[in-house]
Amino acid sequence: MPQVYSVGHRSLWVSAMAYLLMTLGLVGLSAAACAWWLGNLAALPLSLWAVLAVPAGFALLRRLEWGRWLGCATLLSLLPAMLLGLWLVRVQVLNVWVALICLALGAGKLGLLNHLYSRPVQQEFA
Questions:
Q1: Is the Cβ–Cβ distance between 99 and 92 less than 8 Å?
Q2: Higher-confidence residue: 51 or 106?
């Protein structure tokens, strides 16, 4: 079976994931700055996550292998954070809707991670 190598090509999903990670990192940094200014202790883990998300996005754009691993790790680290957020939000009426939204976002993230480990994407980073 012939293999097709696309030299100099980056798939649309990898580009979208890279821009998503960079955007989430910048939003996380601004939220961490606001939380730090208000004296909240959640600013430190949020800023550490954001500092890891931005370089992961840039490395994905440059098709670096460590960027693919770091991007997967940052997306996987969001799943426990969403569960922790569900535990912290104790509003009874909105709790079901927030849980459904978090489950949908988690399924989307797992779909992105599955795509990052597919064979054509792995060949892009080789």
A1: no
A2: 51
Instruction: Evaluate whether 75 touches 107 at the Cβ level (below 8 Å).
Output: no
DSSP state of 126: -
Token representation of residue 125: 């980073």
Q: How many other C-beta atoms can be found within 10 angstroms of the C-beta atom of residue 50?
A: 21
Q: In whole angstroms, what is the distance from residue 28 CA to residue 48 CA?
A: 9
Answer whether 56's CB lies under 8 Å from 21's CB.
Answer: yes
d(CA 21, CA 49): 11
Q: Quick one: tokens of 84? A: 């922790």
For the stretch 72-122, pLDDT in tens is: 888 888 777 766 666 665 555 556 666 677 677 777 777 777 777 777 777
Beta strand segments in 81-121, E:
none
Task: Say if residues 4 and 119 touch (Cβ distance below 8 Å).
Answer: no
CB 113 within 8 A of CB 11: no
